[in-house]
Amino acid sequence: VHFRILAMVFDISSGQSACLLFFVYLTSLYGYAEFLEYIRKSRKKVHGSTTGMEDGALLQDLEEESKPALPSGKVMLMPLCYSTLLRALRLDVDALREVKPMLRNASEMGVLLAWFFLCDRSDLIASGEKSYSRDFFIFFMLLLTAVFLWVELHVSKCKAAPLNRDQTEEWKGWMQVMFLLYHYFEAKEMYNAIRLFIAAYVWMTGFGNFSYYYVRKDFTLGRFAHMMWRLNFFVFFCCLVLRNDYVLYYICPMHTIFTLFIYIVLGTLNQYNSSGMGIAIKFGACFAIVGILWEAPGVFRTVFRPLEPLVGYVDPRKPDIDPLHEWEFRSGLDRYIWIWGMACAFFHPRFERALNTLDEMKSRTTALCIRLIVIAACLGSGSVYYHQIYCLPKLEYNKVHPFTSWIPLTIFIVLRNITPNLRSVHIAKYAFLGKITLETYIAQFHIWLSTNNVPNGQPTKLLVLIPNYPLVNFILCTALYVFVSFRLFNVTNNLKLYLLPLNDNKSLLYNFSIFSGLFVSGLLVSLVMHTFVE
């Protein structure tokens, strides 16, 4: 009866009810584990059997359990053994205590998904119209940057390498803020800039993945699973809970496919990665992949047509368009820039040596002249790019973007690293936001903006918690949105570390199978319940 009422009120799908059963079950296990822990502590207190040393050990255990996986990555969580997971599902007391932190994270994720559903799939929270003011947009960006500079401008104590982790995180952070404000205020005049920001994210996919695989030569299943989990775990549940297609969150499939290309190209015959000729051939293979898929007429849709249930998307406002159009358009805009990211990673040591040589020149005048010449060349080429390409109308710009986006990105990289002082400083708050870009990207659709309760709908509205006070509402919604995104980062990262060991393929496959099997069981139960309701 309760399920019938729920189905009628929310018109829930089998996927939504499967998620509901899945998270309710895990939350119930967590509640039971907490209850058992409470009983155990109570008995020890009553019988006085806990010595001071045992109390200290217990307190230390609890402190270790309560530590979150911060974006800095300093806290390492131990992966769970698959036998422990199985015993926990059979309600073994010791196993439940061991998996309790994992259950706590899974329960929190369920609560956050419920907030997504409440905000964007119910009529309980209002939505409002977007409005754009160039003056306010610029004012807000300048104010935010000034505050972040005043709060924490981090200066590295040692000599920083070009394109170091903090610098790229900062880069992602300020781009993400502008990207989000572009959506919030519908700043259409910034379209071309947003295209460049997305190209920069894809460039980082090529740069980061190539750097890792080329230097560490780690093509293990664990590393690959961690990357796929990061890109797709949370968005999988969003698609089910909110009844959206995967390509609505196009950043996730786009980064996934380019990551797959890099993994396959470098992982195949990886013993030749140390050879210059081998790397040249692999770069040629990347260009060949792109050329065949995107440049040859009809090939893209022929290849991806069997995958249409996964990468197809139809905007409710344009129901007559081919479902593969959106995926072809989105992925095609940045089809080359990931290769340029790989090339930059390959030549990064030479770039660093050139900068070090410039820094160590005995003649400061010569070094200054060289820097001024480089800056002048960058500004000159940037000016040509701006007037000849960037200022093109939207549709014309899209045609040349795949072939020209590398120009402003390269100019920015050179200017950002031209002096040791520029390389050694970064704005810490932007770097923090850069660590949670995936979560802020996904969450913006549902708990900051609003699709107005339309599955697969674009976020054309604003979430309204405080009506008639747009700026106050903006501040409140933004604070909640950033907090939830940060918690999602922690939760998904913790679950990854608990369930996917890096160096134990057997446990990884077993843990994934158990977790997946539990969800599939919920899906089967939901299908039976839906059949009963019908």
Task: Summarize this structure briefly.
The chain is an all-alpha fold.
What this model shows, in words?
This protein has 534 residues and is mainly alpha-helical. α2 (14-47) packs across α24 (505-533). The longest helix has 34 residues, at 14-47. The chain has 24 helices and five strands. The protein is globular, with a radius of gyration of 25 Å. The model is unreliable at 50-75 (pLDDT under 50).
Query: Which assembly state applies to the chains in this document?
Result: single chain
Largest sheet, spatial ordering of strands: 1-5-4
Uncertain regions: pLDDT < 50 for 5+ in a row?
Answer: 50-75
Intertermini distance: 13 Å
Output the helix-strand order: HHHHHEHEHHHHHHHHHHHHHHEHHEEHH
Rg from Cα? 25 Å
Ordered list of secondary-structure elements with their pairings:
Layout lengths: L1 H9 L3 H34 L4 H15 L15 H8 L3 H28 L5 E3 L5 H18 L1 E3 L9 H21 L5 H26 L4 H22 L8 H17 L8 H20 L3 H6 L3 H4 L13 H9 L3 H10 L1 H12 L4 H27 L3 H11 L1 H11 L3 H5 E3 H8 L1 H11 L1 E2 L10 E4 L5 H30 L5 H29 L1
Antiparallel strand pairs: 1-5, 2-3, 4-5
Helix pairs in contact: 2-5, 2-9, 2-24, 4-5, 5-9, 5-22, 5-23, 7-8, 7-21, 7-22, 8-10, 8-15, 8-18, 9-10, 9-23, 10-11, 17-19, 22-23
Summary tags:
73% helix; mainly alpha; 24 helices; single chain; two-stranded antiparallel sheet; 534 residues; 3% strand
